[in-house]
Amino acid sequence: MRSVFRLAAAALALALTAGCAAAPSSSLPASSPPAATPAPQPDPADEIRAMWISYKEWETMDFSSEAAFTEQAARMMENCAALGMNRVLVQVRPFADAIYPSELFPWSDLCAGVQGQDPGYDPLAILVQQAHGNGLAIEAWVNPYRVRLNASYPAGELAATNPAVQHPDWAKEAGGGIYLDPANPEVQAYIAAGVQEILDNYPVDGIHFDDYFYPTTEESFDEDAYAASGTDLPLADWRRENVNSLVSLVYRTVKEASPTAVFGISPQGNPDNNYNGQYSDVSLWMRTPGYLDYVMPQIYWGFGYTLQSGSDRFAFENIIAEWAAMPRAQKVALCAGLGAHRIGDGDGGSNATSTSQWQTGCNLASQVQGLRAAGLNGYALYRYASLFDNAAWADLAAAECEALRTAND
Fold first, then answer.
1. What burial class does residue 309 get, using C-beta atoms within 10 Å of its C-beta: 0-12 exposed, 13-18 middle, 19+ buried?
2. Sign of the C-alpha dihedral, residues 117, 118, 120, 122?
3. How many CB atoms lie within 10 A of CB 142?
4. Which carries the bigger pLDDT value, residue 155 or residue 7?
5. What string of DSSP letters covers 272-334?
6. How far apart are CA 367 and CA 404, in angstroms?
């Protein structure tokens, strides 16, 4: 299989040597095992071209009034549409809180400065209206487990209505943060109910999860629940089953609430980290119906990316070929998350072009062409501010935007 990856990677690598020119249009060699269901071929008209809009964007948005927020949201969606995007992935619940009125989660502190405080209007309703008004599909991006990143973020105290406060037995500490317990069936049901609430109240086009599942590999994190489960499974497999249970439950919730809405997940680009570090069996989700509609691994490495060990497994051209070779169910799309946040700064690789290729003003467009050559179904850019509010690399960001517009014409 590795030789297949190398053949496929060689085709993609041409995109780098071509500078700002389009990547090769030829498809990669077929590489799925014969027993696998053939992967769907992308229709250019249906290509996903998405922008991640995260809580980092909310930190700089003006939530002080409905008019101010609406003005900025309108500009944001107009910029995305002008770039050739057709979808936005909008983070609506980053820390067991919400940027919309919820009966299950408190208001995010990003809206009014204090968790639980109502800003006096509905930001998500505005975002949906502005996205649809600009011809963009919108997915509600939810972080299922995270309550606190660390002791100081989110700022201030957790609201009394935060599920971790109302149900302290649901909360687990890891790495200085707080997370809802992935093993608890009540937690899983609560997360699914939160998804149901969004779909019941907003005409969103999908639900999106990112790569945050189990926050630690420490055995002590859930040793009591593991012991009480009576399972014969090893700890790692038991944890993967807990995540599988949530993912399948959310998928069913989405489809029952809105059959046309999609459910997608953006795992880490490193398949080993997903499986062994976060207990996310992404390969199972891809090849088995009933888990997701698309998978969007975060491929934040450049062409030729090389580790200090000399390994180039995660070079863009190599890791894309590896993901493309994984078996997929017929209706599961494969996209890639691309790192706009790498513009100017580089990706930290040991290869000579680790920084310089991110200073050409066209690296993202070259990667998009590479994805198309590899037969992927689309991409998302992380994140909006890296392209439209990039004070450190304004000229490069503008050049990348122009190259992307050309690639999307």
1. exposed
2. positive
3. 20
4. 155
5. HIIIIIS---HHHHHHSTTS-SEE--EE---TT---TTS--TTSHHHHHHHHHTS---TT-EE
6. 10
Distance CA 197, CA 194 (A): 5
Closest CA to 268 of 310, 300, 290: 300
CATH no. for residue 233?
Answer: 3.20.20.80
- The whole-number average pLDDT for the span 282-310 is 98
- The tally of domains found in the chain comes to 1
Stated length of the chain: 409
- Whole-structure pTM value: 0.91
Q: Tell me which residue range forms the domain holding 221.
A: 2-408
Location of structure tokens 């991006």: 141
Task: Return the pLDDT at 13.
Answer: 52
Q: What is the pLDDT of residue 155?
A: 87
Rounded CA-CA distance 147/152 in Å is: 12
Cβ-count burial 260-276 (b if 16+ within 10 Å, e if not): ebbbbbbbbbbbeebbe
pLDDT tens-digit series, residues 140-196: 999 999 999 999 999 899 999 999 999 999 999 999 999 999 999 999 999 999 999
The identity of residue 182, as a single letter, is P
Closest residue by Cα to residue 317 from 20, 21, 24: 24
